[in-house]
Amino acid sequence: MGDLSKNFSKLEIMCPCGCGADKISPVLIKKLQKVRNIIGRPLIITSGVRCEFYNESIKASMSSSHVPDDSGTGNAVDIACTNSKERYELVEVAQKFFQRIGISGGSYGGFIHLDVDRSKAQEVMWLY
Ligand SMILES: [Zn+2]
Questions:
Q1: Which domain does 81 fall in, by range?
Q2: What is the whole-number distance in angstroms between the Cα of residue 67 and the centre of ligand 1?
Q3: Which end of the chain is more exposed for a tag (fewer CB within 10 A), N or C?
Q4: How far is the CA of 100 from the centre of ligand 1 (A)?
Q5: Residues with pLDDT less than 50, the chain
């Protein structure tokens, strides 16, 4: 049992640098839990909230939706996804709830980025 939703906990989405930033969009978590319910197996979050310092340290985009917005809330998660079967399933289900999806293959480690950032283009899917 998670403390954010049935299957997700703050520890999983907390900034890994030690700063303690762990405020994440409840809308994002609600959608993520719906995806999890349909998939029916654990979804491993590889990145949730990232403070500016940490985000810069991993050379991620300055305008990343993982970085807390003006209200101090993170709006993105990356879900581990390293094989084609899981990728197909995750993208299919995620599209029911998310309007912004990024797909990473090989060199960046293999994950699906999901975010609820309303300040950016909707109904888009991009590659890393
Ligand atoms: Zn941090």
A1: 10-127
A2: 9
A3: N
A4: 24
A5: none
Q: What is the pTM of this model?
A: 0.95
Q: Is 94 a domain residue?
A: yes
Say whether 120 sits in a helix, a strand or coil.
coil
Q: How many domains does the chain have?
A: 1
| Ranges of H-type helices in 1-128 | 10-13, 26-39, 52-57, 84-94
Taking the centre of ligand 1 as the mean of its atom positions, its distance from the CA of residue 73, in whole angstroms, is 13
Q: Which residues surround ligand 1, an ion (CB under 5 A)?
A: 15, 17, 19, 51, 54
Tens digit of each residue's pLDDT (9 = 90 or more) over 47-71 = 999 999 999 999 999 999 999 999 9
CA angle at 6 for the pair 112 and 19, rounded to the nearest 5°? 65
Q: How far is the CA of 47 from the centre of ligand 1 (A)?
A: 12
Q: Quote the pLDDT of residue 108.
A: 72
